[in-house]
Design goal:
disordered C terminus; 21 helices; four-stranded antiparallel beta sheet; 692 residues; alpha+beta
Length: 692
């Protein structure tokens, strides 16, 4: 007997060390791959475009033409009082130097404005091909050569320059995004735990999980061709820290409780994992299922974000259910200092804010439910005030060189196209296509360009400004009239992004709802409760978008809304919002299984899980709010809507509306499961679950 007890004791001491050793091996294997993730990150237009759109086909065919993909730029010379002869000589000299230093596709020709203040030189080079670093180097060198002085302003714009400016922003996101996220999570954990040491443990584990996710993401890219962009890798980091910290909060809270009831930390952690593990697994499963629905999207950027987001959540889950418990057991009770949970002690009785909130919801459940529904509905109306589609020039929170060039062109060439469209047509029909293009209403001019591989490139200038209604009509007219040809270019790409996002919403949104609903039905063994949770998160999404509509234009000064905002915010808010519903309803179900009456079960669940859910919601909202400090409008909008939605879900929907609905429905909330019937005989599960 003594030998068996000694063996058990040694076994308990060795398991955490074995887990720690296994993680060292895993991280050592993943390290070389994680370091290479930045090398496979791509932020070219084709990496974001719809897979089947005209503009995508144009970009792919251009890569196969002689010289490969072309980097197109527009060099803009401007003087407010009018260009002088010296200015024109300066422009000619600089263009000659650029042509001598780089392989251009043609001789640069200046296009002067009618008021004489501006001249633009469209230039293109196949020198970089599809190499983003070479493209950025080309644009940087052109900018070094093309410089103004004595009142002459020179800006380099165009598609290539805009891509370079966007690439610089995405490449700069990794470090600041990681450091800011870690700092925000650290601050919140210190406030939540009130311990100088405890916060370090989950934060360090989240950092290691993020590093592991980078290695796995690189493996997906190499093995399955999963696209990796600056946006998707940034979102992956946010999810690792946000979701991972949520799981850590739930586990540490339960572990603290068990340490008061259990003498040995190993046994306390075993009980904690047994108690909260199913809820954590189910919540991560809903997030993963929701994100994987993005694989059905036709938009490359959305489809690539699904697997990377899933990798982030699953790496966080594995780390928080293995490495975090091992470290906490090895560190023992002292890691909680100064609020050490002593064996046999009881926590100080405090007035529970969530008990008071639950009581108010329990007294008048229908009134609270109706009031909350009206409030969410009123907020959702703000979505009608969302700005129109986001234009390329409005995508930055600060004005880079390429955007300055676009604004100068728009002012100097009013009512004229300054950004060429590209038509790719079969070579044997090139002459007929060129003639048809020139006859198309809205086309100012068209010229024949490169040819090869059975395809010919046509450069088309529209008569309307870029991304205007007139130019959009011209693009649509060209696509209707040119059978077997493709119409692309920057403006066509934006049009395809808008249309494909609308298509993807119709496909992905139902998939997300169905997949999340099925998981909830299996977990809660009910139909009404899952429908209630799904309806709640959909209402939160609508209200969060509505708040965005109230502040994006009037307060933030944004000129447009990213076309992908609706779909991505829906996927994240539904998948992540259901997490907290799982924590609450899972506890409510356990209380009911233990014999509690429906009202008591609902209020007890809120009182016992409210603090953890509030802490987790604050952390998750704060991590997504980090995106609002980034210099890209689409990231600011996405981060704002998700952060606001998580806060609404945490402090209004979970606290009041779900609790009120559960009180009002009573046992019917568990229909058609056995808990929905009045108890004639006690309902006993096969194994009595531990409380979450």
């Amino acid at each position: 007997m003594g030998a068996a007890r000694a063996w058990t004791s040694r076994h308990r001491r060795s398991v955490p060390w074995l887990v720690l050793g296994l993680w060292v091996v895993v991280l050592a294997i993943a390290s070389p791959f994680a370091a290479k993730l930045a090398d496979v990150q791509r932020d070219r237009a084709v990496d974001y475009l719809p897979a089947s759109a005209d503009s995508t086909q144009v970009a792919k065919i251009q890569e196969r033409l002689p010289g490969g993909a072309a980097t197109e730029m527009v060099i803009v010379y401007h003087r407010d009082g009018g260009l002088t002869a010296k200015d024109r000589a300066t422009a000619a000299e600089q263009l000659e130097r650029i042509a001598g230093a780089h392989r251009l596709t043609g001789e640069p020709r200046g296009v002067p404005s009618e008021d004489g203040t501006t001249v633009m030189y469209p230039v293109a080079s196949t020198e970089p091909g599809t190499d983003e670093k070479a493209r950025d180097a080309l644009v940087g060198d052109v900018r070094d050569i093309a410089r103004g002085a004595d009142g002459l302003s020179v800006d380099v714009g165009g598609e290539g320059a805009l891509a370079t400016d966007a690439s610089e922003v995405y490449n700069s996101l990794g470090g600041p995004l990681l450091y800011t996220t870690a700092a925000v999570v650290a601050l919140l954990l210190i406030l939540i735990y009130r311990s100088p040491f405890l916060w370090l443990v989950p934060l360090a584990v989240a950092g290691l999980a993020d590093y592991l996710s980078m290695g796995v993401a690189y493996g997906l890219n190499q093995g399955f061709g999963t696209s990796v962009s600056g946006q998707s890798s940034g979102i992956m980091t946010i999810l690792v820290f946000g979701a991972g910290t949520d799981y850590a909060l739930l586990l540490v809270s339960r572990y603290r409780e068990e340490l008061r009831r259990t003498e040995r930390p190993y046994d306390a952690m075993t009980a904690a994992l047994r108690g909260c593990g199913p809820a954590v697994l189910a919540s991560s499963g809903t997030v993963a299922a929701g994100l994987l629905c993005l694989l059905a999207a036709d938009l490359n950027s959305s489809r690539g974000m699904g697997p990377l987001g899933t990798v982030g959540v699953l790496c966080a889950l594995v780390a928080m259910l293995t490495l975090l418990p091992a470290l906490l057991v090895l560190l023992g009770r002292r890691v909680f200092w100064p609020l050490v949970p002593r064996y046999g002690s009881t926590p100080k009785a405090r007035r529970s804010l969530f008990a008071a909130m639950g009581s108010s919801a329990g007294r008048r459940p229908l009134t609270v439910l109706a009031g909350g529904a009206v409030l969410l509905g009123a907020l959702a109306l703000g979505a009608l005030n969302l700005p129109g589609g986001l234009k390329q020039g409005d995508s930055f929170t600060s004005e880079p060189d390429a955007v300055a060039a676009m604004k100068t062109l728009a002012a100097a060439y009013p009512g004229h196209g300054t950004q060429p469209l590209t038509v790719i047509t079969p070579t044997d029909r090139a002459d007929a296509t060129l003639a048809e293009v020139r006859r198309t209403p809205g086309v100012d001019s068209a010229e024949r360009g490169r040819g090869g591989g059975g395809w010919t490139e046509l450069s088309v200038t529209a008569g309307a400004p870029p991304q205007s209604a007139g130019e959009t009509a011209t693009i649509e007219a060209l696509r209707d009239r040119l059978d077997g040809s493709y119409v692309g270019g920057p403006s066509a790409e934006q049009l395809d992004l808008r249309d494909t996002n609308a298509r993807d919403r119709l496909i992905v949104v139902p998939l997300v709802l169905v997949s999340v609903l099925l998981i909830l039905v299996v977990l809660l063994r009910s139909l009404v409760a899952p429908l209630l949770l799904v309806a709640a998160v959909v209402a939160v999404w609508g209200a969060a978008l509505g708040i965005g509509g109230l502040v994006f234009g009037p307060l933030f000064g944004f000129e447009g809304t990213d076309p992908g905002l609706g779909l991505l915010s829906f996927v994240f808010l539904v998948a992540l919002g259901v997490d907290y519903g799982i924590f609450l309803m899972h506890r409510m179900r356990e209380e009911s299984l233990n014999g509690a009456e429906p009202v008591a079960a609902a209020l007890t669940a809120l009182r016992t899980t409210g603090g953890v859910i509030a802490s987790a919601g604050l952390v998750l909202a704060a991590t997504f709010a980090v995106l609002t400090s980034m210099p890209l409008v689409q990231l600011v909008e996405l981060g704002f809507v998700i952060a606001v939605g998580v806060l609404l879900d945490t402090f209004l929907v979970r606290t009041y509306l779900v609790t009120s609905a559960s009180v009002a429905l009573r046992r019917r909330v568990w229909w058609p499961g056995s808990l929905s019937r009045e108890p004639g005989t006690p309902v006993r599960p096969e194994r009595q679950p531990e409380p979450v």
